[in-house]
């Protein structure tokens, strides 16, 4: 039996997830503020600005009316940019009902408050954060919309919510695992964008594969260190939401974060890069938030610190990388605090 599912908003990832839901015989209502975009989706079954060359299912209909999009929906999937997440959730509140499953697929922080997206959404909808499901993992929209084999994870403290989201999305080409560590999955999805920016810069500078391999490896250590300090399960960072998403975002030309980093490495200015791309590059906002978090918690995040200097303090890219390589000698393996190990293995 088909169900109505609402997707907010109609960017590349939102449209790709709408395509998965439509392939699963759901009627998908996509909300957008752009009337021309809504008309294009409804009349031409395309979304050329975000997914050029892709033909969308006729089961996907777009609207600029939030009430029309959400009313009667079994589930609402929020895929807005992190900067717009609070406003979108606030607009949703008037039409939201407690029986709706809330899934978000946003990878970032609210820069002003340093809050995760599930926290922002729970505050606006007045629902328990643990009842929200987050979808993350190695998944480029350009490949998902073409039905390339993809594997992701949905996380929630509420096992029923995670299983409901898994059932909603899973099919022959889109495999979905569940995870109870919502915190770790959210942190992985956000923080890996910083490392992807760094990987792009390394490639833009022509530093080669050795440098990028080192950056990804130490980047994962940095993400894990911060995540464990914030209370996440260390094993999450070796899974799909962690190393899986890190690898695909830091090595693929589909990645906006990698592309932005590459252009910066080639000497372009940040404003020019953002203007030429014409899409949100979440890693830039996330770098600002993660740097503030590292300072607040006293966690060492040297890659984040270097990128913050490049993005927001005008630091020279090449000199910043040289400074990173010239840090004091360290041991590679970090000892996990005993209480953290016991917490996740009890």
TrEMBL record:
The active site is at 192 (proton acceptor). Residues 1-18 form the signal peptide. GO terms for cellular component: cytosol. Pathway: Membrane lipid metabolism; glycerophospholipid metabolism. Residues 4-161 form the Glycerol-3-phosphate dehydrogenase NAD-dependent N-terminal domain. SUPFAM superfamilies: 6-phosphogluconate dehydrogenase C-terminal domain-like, NAD(P)-binding Rossmann-fold domains. It catalyses: sn-glycerol 3-phosphate + NADP(+) = dihydroxyacetone phosphate + NADPH + H(+); sn-glycerol 3-phosphate + NAD(+) = dihydroxyacetone phosphate + NADH + H(+). Sn-glycerol 3-phosphate binds at residues 107, 137, 139, 192, 245, 255-257. NADPH binds at residues 12-13, 33, 50, 107, 141, 256, 280, 282. Substrate binds at residues 107, 256-257. Its EC number is 1.1.1.94. GO terms for biological process: carbohydrate metabolic process; glycerol-3-phosphate biosynthetic process; glycerol-3-phosphate catabolic process; glycerophospholipid metabolic process; phospholipid biosynthetic process. Keywords: Cytoplasm, Lipid biosynthesis, Lipid metabolism, NAD, NADP, Nucleotide-binding, Oxidoreductase, Phospholipid biosynthesis, Phospholipid metabolism, Signal. It is found in: Cytoplasm. NAD(+) binds at residues 141, 256. One of its GO terms (molecular function) is glycerol-3-phosphate dehydrogenase (NAD+) activity. Residues 181-322 form the Glycerol-3-phosphate dehydrogenase NAD-dependent C-terminal domain. Catalyzes the reduction of the glycolytic intermediate dihydroxyacetone phosphate (DHAP) to sn-glycerol 3-phosphate (G3P), the key precursor for phospholipid synthesis. Belongs to the NAD-dependent glycerol-3-phosphate dehydrogenase family. This is Glycerol-3-phosphate dehydrogenase [NAD(P)+]. It comes from Paenibacillus terrae.
């Amino acid at each position: 039996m088909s169900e109505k599912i609402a997707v907010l908003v109609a960017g590349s990832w939102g449209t790709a997830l709408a395509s998965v839901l439509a392939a699963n015989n759901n009627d998908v209502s996509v909300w957008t503020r752009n009337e021309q975009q809504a008309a294009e989706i409804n009349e031409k079954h395309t979304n050329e600005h975000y997914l050029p060359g892709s033909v969308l299912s006729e089961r996907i209909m777009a609207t600029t009316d939030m009430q029309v999009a959400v009313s009667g929906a079994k589930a609402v999937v929020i895929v807005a940019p992190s900067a717009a997440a609070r406003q979108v959730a606030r607009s949703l509140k008037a039409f939201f009902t407690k029986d709706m499953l809330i899934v978000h697929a946003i990878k970032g922080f609210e820069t002003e408050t340093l809050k995760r997206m599930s926290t922002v959404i729970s505050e606006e909808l007045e629902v328990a954060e643990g009842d929200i499901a987050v979808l993350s993992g190695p998944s480029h929209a350009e490949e998902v919309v073409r039905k390339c084999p993809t594997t992701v994870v949905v996380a929630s403290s509420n096992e029923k919510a995670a299983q409901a989201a898994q059932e909603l999305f899973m099919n022959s080409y889109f495999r979905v695992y569940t995870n109870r560590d919502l915190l770790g999955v959210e942190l992985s999805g956000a923080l890996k964008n910083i490392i992807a920016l760094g990987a792009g810069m390394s490639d833009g500078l022509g530093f080669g594969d050795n440098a990028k391999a080192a950056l990804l490896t130490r980047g994962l250590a940095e993400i894990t260190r911060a995540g464990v300090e914030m209370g996440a399960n260390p094993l999450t960072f070796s899974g799909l939401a962690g190393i899986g998403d890190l690898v695909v975002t830091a090595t693929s030309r589909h990645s906006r974060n990698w592309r932005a980093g590459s252009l910066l490495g080639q000497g372009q200015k940040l404003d020019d890069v953002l203007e030429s791309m014409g899409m949100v590059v979440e890693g830039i906002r996330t770098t600002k938030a993660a740097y503030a978090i590292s300072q607040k918690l006293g966690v060492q995040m040297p890659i984040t610190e270097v990128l913050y200097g490049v993005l927001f303090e005008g630091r020279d890219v090449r000199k910043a990388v040289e400074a990173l390589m010239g840090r004091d000698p360290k041991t590679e393996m970090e000892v996990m605090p005993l209480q953290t190990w016991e917490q996740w293995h009890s």
